[in-house]
Amino acid sequence: MAKLTKKAKTLATAIDRDKLYGINEAIALARANATSKFDETIEVALNLGVDPRHADQMVRGVVTLPKGTGKTVRVGVFAKGAKAEEALAAGADVVGAEDLMEIVQGGKIDFDRCIATPDMMGVVGRLGKILGPKGLMPNPKLGTVTMNVAQAVKDAKGGQIEYRVEKAGIIHSGIGKASFPAEDLRANFDALVDAVVKAKPTGAKGKYVRKVAVSSTMGAGIKVDTAEVSAA
């Protein structure tokens, strides 16, 4: 059996794996255990009572974290003419049409979020096998296929994140950096959970939010008492 590192021993004693913590205590513990040399992300895992293989149990959407993500988000926009100029003026990092399609086809994806005007979806559709698996395919329901590209770019830059339930019924999402004040992380946590609860699908049966855990990038998961998660 491998020896525990000093950090692992500290974590093992600091976190009771069987205890359900209050949200504020869980966030405080996650921040305290984020001792890497880089600014770790504080992450939330929501285990939902859904089976996403069924269309009526898919949970997906966008939410704006009020205190931001702490990350610099690079935004790519598929648009032409005046809409391309709007996107650039709003702060988009990469803007193009067929030329941008060729760059992506060549294997270079220099953006974290992708937005497109409706008239460009014929071009973007050819990139489905590249953008789809990376979660970058523009989608009207998520506000990333829109004529209002300027607002979409500002939203993406201003703390808007996309959440999506995975095959096992779990949503993983960052809610900020360990360097954030605890109250900012709590505000972002509440915004995420509120959005996920409101997105409860019609096909969900029984308890919806079954388990919640908070962790830092390199830290152990800290179980949260779901009784504290409103309307779960």
Automatic annotation (TrEMBL):
<dbReference type="InterPro" id="IPR016095">
    <property type="entry name" value="Ribosomal_uL1_3-a/b-sand"/>
</dbReference>
<dbReference type="InterPro" id="IPR023674">
    <property type="entry name" value="Ribosomal_uL1-like"/>
</dbReference>
<dbReference type="GO" id="GO:0003735">
    <property type="term" value="F:structural constituent of ribosome"/>
</dbReference>
<keyword id="KW-0678">Repressor</keyword>
<dbReference type="Pfam" id="PF00687">
    <property type="entry name" value="Ribosomal_L1"/>
</dbReference>
<dbReference type="InterPro" id="IPR002143">
    <property type="entry name" value="Ribosomal_uL1"/>
</dbReference>
<dbReference type="GO" id="GO:0006412">
    <property type="term" value="P:translation"/>
</dbReference>
<dbReference type="InterPro" id="IPR005878">
    <property type="entry name" value="Ribosom_uL1_bac-type"/>
</dbReference>
<keyword id="KW-0689">Ribosomal protein</keyword>
<dbReference type="GO" id="GO:0019843">
    <property type="term" value="F:rRNA binding"/>
</dbReference>
<comment type="similarity">
    <text>Belongs to the universal ribosomal protein uL1 family.</text>
</comment>
<comment type="function">
    <text>Binds directly to 23S rRNA. The L1 stalk is quite mobile in the ribosome, and is involved in E site tRNA release.</text>
</comment>
<keyword id="KW-0699">rRNA-binding</keyword>
<dbReference type="GO" id="GO:0022625">
    <property type="term" value="C:cytosolic large ribosomal subunit"/>
</dbReference>
<keyword id="KW-0687">Ribonucleoprotein</keyword>
<protein>
    <recommendedName>
        <fullName>Large ribosomal subunit protein uL1</fullName>
    </recommendedName>
</protein>
<keyword id="KW-0694">RNA-binding</keyword>
<dbReference type="GO" id="GO:0000049">
    <property type="term" value="F:tRNA binding"/>
</dbReference>
<dbReference type="InterPro" id="IPR023673">
    <property type="entry name" value="Ribosomal_uL1_CS"/>
</dbReference>
<comment type="subunit">
    <text>Part of the 50S ribosomal subunit.</text>
</comment>
<dbReference type="GO" id="GO:0006417">
    <property type="term" value="P:regulation of translation"/>
</dbReference>
<keyword id="KW-0820">tRNA-binding</keyword>
<keyword id="KW-0810">Translation regulation</keyword>
<comment type="function">
    <text>Protein L1 is also a translational repressor protein, it controls the translation of the L11 operon by binding to its mRNA.</text>
</comment>
<dbReference type="InterPro" id="IPR028364">
    <property type="entry name" value="Ribosomal_uL1/biogenesis"/>
</dbReference>
